[in-house]
Amino acid sequence: MFPGLNEQMDVIRQGVVDLLPENELVHKIEKSIKQNKPLNIKLGADPSRPDLHIGHAVVLHKMRQFQDLGHEATLIIGDFTGMIGDPTGKSKTRPQLTLEETKINGQSYIEQATIILRADRLIVKYNSEWLNSMNFVDVIKLASNYTVAQMLERDDFSNRYKSGTPISIHELLYPLAQGMDSVVIKSDVELGGTDQKFNLLVGRELQKQYGVEPQCILTMPILAGTDGIQKMSKSLDNYIALTDSPKEMFGKTMSIPDNLITLYMLHAAFMDSAKIKATEEGLKDGSVHPRNAKVETAMKIVEVYHGADSAKSAFEEFERIFVNKDIPDVIDEMVIECDGGKIGLADLLMTALLTPSKKESRRLIEQGGVTVDGEKCTDPFTHIDISTKRLLKVGKRKFLYVISN
RNA sequence: GGGCAGAUACCGAAGCGGUUAAACGGGGCAGACUGUAAAUCUGCUAGGGUAAUCCUUACGGAGGUUCGAAUCCUUCUCUGCCCA
After folding, report:
1. Is the ipTM value over 0.90, yes or no?
2. How many angstroms separate the CA of A391 from the C1' of B49?
3. Can you list the positions of beta strands (E) in A69-121?
4. pLDDT by residue (tens digit) across A179-216?
5. Are A236 and A230 in contact (CB under 8 A)?
6. Nearest DNA or RNA nucleotide to A163 (CA to C1')
């Protein structure tokens, strides 16, 4: 039994950017209810970057909503297309992976995606299954469906072309390959980030060419990273991973710029719109302090992935370290090898892997970023007696007990 | 096939024979401030060396000219543009 049309559409519309064509989706859902048959919802996974973060969660969460409405999710692991490398949002050609690499990454992708997706009503497919067996004739036939001008409509391509950045021919094939997936699995709806809009529409177009009922496309916003400027991505190191610890999730959320708070409430914490609206107004008239709004958001995000208890302790830990400048409740301990239990501070930091080089150690020490047992130490050459356990603090976040063997 | 332009540190981009571990911007890190790992301000940002006008590595690759090269020459690789 499926929920009614209006109920479904209300859920589906939440937070979306594009839903095209909307009336077609209405027909599809009406039909689905009448025939008691779930829609086939497609989501392509790019296995070239298998580290999922809460930016990916925006779309995955939408997929989950479809599942909860009774529809069927098809997750396409782009093991074949991963070899091409998605040109989306890239100013450079992506490195090409081998099929084995993309397969392994794909597995890890599935594990992380199912943190959000439910395991029933989920079908996983690898697109090498059909793309790998296409021969050159098939490819030419596929390619003849699109023109160069159409491809260049895409921002990524036209920008690169205008700026003189190389575009390899094989990159033009990427959208077509991805579109082929839609033809093969006969998807009713394809989800993606707004940067995928072009690719999704190619899928729709190809379905028509190949005589399959065309899919609707639904795009979700691209979540800005914790720096508040660039989109969230692992390579920019502005991401909150789905597998991050509660502490990390909390801290990273606290580091977002204030103007991102309501955005994160909606797309990362999935809070309800009335609450978000209230916070937005509170922030504007000053009745809500940005820090408190952020704390609330951070706790909610941790709660989504780790539960309410973890959220509470992550918050307490944050208070302890950054507000009360206290030390964490759990600190690692490391046994250091050295003669006579004494070691130069700069050497110590490097040996304890707190810094990548001795130069770096010296810089940090001289800038006052290092304390030993709570006392600031600015001479990189003082020898520290570590025959008894000492507490090192490097920067704001790194704590470590050290002791000699 | 021919002509022209280009390849610089994490990224963008100056430099065009010595004072250049390389301006400037971004990013990153640290400090100050703050009810936040927000904002703002300041400093640092190749490795080694308890110092130096010290050593090593570094301006696409390989050679060469020179007391001395990111800067000049040769050649190779890669990229863009134009002509065919």
Report:
1. no
2. 27
3. 72-77
4. 999 999 999 999 999 989 999 999 999 999 999 999 99
5. yes
6. B80
